[in-house]
Amino acid sequence: MTQRTPVAIFNSHAEFIDALREALDCQGLPTVTALLAEIQSGALDLVAFLETHDPQVIVYDLPRPFEKHWNFLRLLKQTDVLKKRTWILTTIDKAALDAAVGASGVIEVILGEPYGVADVVDAVHHALRGASAQSLGGDAYARRPFA
User: How many C-beta atoms surround the C-beta of residue 11 within 10 A?
Assistant: First the structure.
């Protein structure tokens, strides 16, 4: 049975997942979460997970090495269940990510460090309202989905 959950959080740091989940829960936005290692190792069936929870927005952390993780993300985005999601991509070094893979042209929102929980919460609210991420300012950018 599918249960619509507004936000899925996929990150490599459990502490950040917990902080973001708590902040979103306090604002009435239920979340589902997973560590990136669980997704990449196959311990979590991501397609089944997303079919079950049906999130509107996915907050996805892209760690180093960017090329490896970017290729994995591109594979994920090619699956039918992930094609039409709104993605918020977080990364520790936006400039290096852009240089490595040109990510700014193919993802809806990229938040480069320094970013905090409040920045991601703001991006989630904008994404859920369908507002342009351009209004977020700073290092956040509105982008079209992957081709």
Answer: 22
